[in-house]
Each structure stands twice: as C-alpha cells, then as structure tokens.
Amino acid sequence: HDFFPPTYDFPVFDPDGPEHPVISPLQQVYNEHSTLNLYCSAVCNPPAKFSWYLNGELLARQNESRLAQRLTLKNAGNYTCRVDNVETGLSKAVGLEISIREAINHISVRDPGKIVENSTTYLNCTASGFNVSYYWLKGKQRLQAGARLSLSSNGQNLSLSKTSRQDSGLYTCWGINSFSNNSFNYTLNVFCKSGSALGRL
Asked: Domain Ig-like spans what residues (predicted)?
C-alpha cells in the first residue's frame, strides 16, 4: 500500500493595518472631578500597540486601548489615540477635543467695610465655576427678598436697607451649579454711629 503523509493547512501570517482607529464615547463635555473613560479600537494584525496623547504630550499610560483619569481643568484639550502595527511599521491616529466645566471654587464675600446703623449694607459673593447661582443663609435660615432685603436675580448680591442691630450675625453665601457647591461664611457687625458695635451672633 502506498503511504501518503497527512497534510496540514497552516495559517498564513499576513500582517495588515491598522485601519482608521475609533475613539468612544464621543462625549466632549465633562464636569470637573468626574472620571474620563475613553476607549480606542482599530482593526490590526497583529493587535495594535496603543498610545494616548493630550495636546501632543504622551500620557503616562501606554499600550492600553482604555484611558481612564480623574479630570481637573488642566486635563482639557485634544486627546489623541495613536495605533501602531509593529510588523508593518504603519500607524494611524484619531483625536477628540474635550472641554471641562469648572466646579464651584474660590468662593468669597467682599468685605463691605464698616457698617453703621440705619445705613444700607451691600454683600457681594463671588465664586469661580460653571453657571453659578447663589443663595444666602443667616445662621441656618435661608434669606428671601423682603421689605428691607433685596437679592439680585442670581442671588449673588444682597442688600439690607436701614441696617439694624438685629442684622448682625453670621451670613453664609452658597454657590451652586448642577454638579457642585461651595460656601463662605461672613460675620456682619453693625456699629452705632458713635462707633461701638451693636452686637453679633
């Protein structure tokens, strides 16, 4: 009998690619202190080597298709995924522009100077952040506009007409937006016209 050795079909290694890479998700606006998760994919044989860049600077993590980091304002800019095929020597890249909405930071109340009874007191609160609105507390009570108290449309500015001894105390300004808040305490002292303080809480 004739003997025919078995034949085997060995796969042919055919380096190819990379095809044009894709970043997901395509979300471009994030909140400060949130976590950025980006994924990069590309058809490539052998599997591609991935590199991530921010504004042209190579990020610390390399050779991973996923990029994850907690966001600060410094992390805004153009994120680029570069894919390299070590066999073909070819590379391709894709970018995504990311902007970051600032959380409420650096809140303060401007010192109105010496407050004398029967004068009008102006308290101005400022905070850095995205789309900030404000409200005020005296002690633990939220303040509302009334006969002697006026508030600006976004709550940033508070004015008290005919300031009296009862207006002395601890005022708290809160700055808020859809994803963060911050506060600042200010103690208001009302003085008699002769110069002595009328009291505080």
From this structure: 21-97, 117-189
